[in-house]
Recover the amino acids of this structure.
């Protein structure tokens, strides 16, 4: 493993020389991710010694393994991905690359072997790396499985497409309020018939 410390800008930029087997696995995972993500993004990759998709972060130019941009004309930066192998999950790599990728104006996703997940988490904490997602990968033969193992709590969810605003519905005339039914007036009790008393005839004097 070899690191070059002569990066313009004053911070370390590790140039890692991986064992051949790890380098082949590293490049294979990058191409798998490119195929997987190209449905939603424009995906540029830096494989091996190639430095095609550069990104200005801070005072210098850096080259993540995958650079995701939007598929429209704006080509807005939508994400950075760094793929590591067992040899490259270490303190110097976290300090010199991950920490800077985490400061970019786009989510930073880190892919590490399943056996290195705990180490990667610890290095992110120790080096204050702002990582949006950490993924593990595990290969069996020709099959590679990717598993999301950590997501930043403040990571926004992709917003659904906004529907066109509906025209305001015409206001309906308010129905007249029903008058409260008044109780029927009580009937006055019928007057009792007055009994007529026969007038007494005056007594005739004899």
């Amino acid at each position: 493993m070899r690191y070059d410390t002569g990066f313009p800008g004053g911070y370390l930029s590790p140039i890692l020389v991986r064992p051949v087997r790890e380098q082949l696995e590293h490049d294979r995972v990058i191409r798998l991710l490119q195929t997987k993500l190209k449905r939603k993004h424009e995906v540029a990759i830096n494989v091996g010694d190639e430095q095609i998709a550069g990104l200005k972060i801070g005072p210098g130019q850096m080259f993540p393994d995958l650079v995701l941009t939007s598929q429209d004309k704006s080509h807005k930066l939508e994400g950075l991905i760094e793929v590591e192998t067992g040899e490259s999950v270490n303190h110097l790599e976290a300090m010199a690359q991950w920490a800077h990728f985490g400061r970019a104006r786009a989510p930073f996703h880190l892919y590490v072997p399943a056996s290195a997940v705990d180490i990667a988490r610890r290095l992110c904490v120790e080096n204050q790396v702002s990582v949006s997602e950490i993924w593990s990968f595990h290969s069996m033969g020709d099959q590679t499985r990717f598993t999301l193992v950590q997501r930043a709590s403040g990571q926004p969810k992709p917003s659904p497409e906004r529907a066109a605003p509906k025209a305001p519905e015409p206001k309906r005339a308010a129905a007249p309020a029903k008058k409260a039914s008044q109780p029927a007036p009580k009937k006055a009790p019928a007057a009792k018939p007055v009994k007529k008393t026969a007038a007494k005839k005056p007594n005739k004097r004899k």
In short: The two ends are 165 Å apart (CA to CA). Strands lie at 42-45, 55-57, 60-62, 66-69, 77-83, 108-113, 133-140, 143-151.
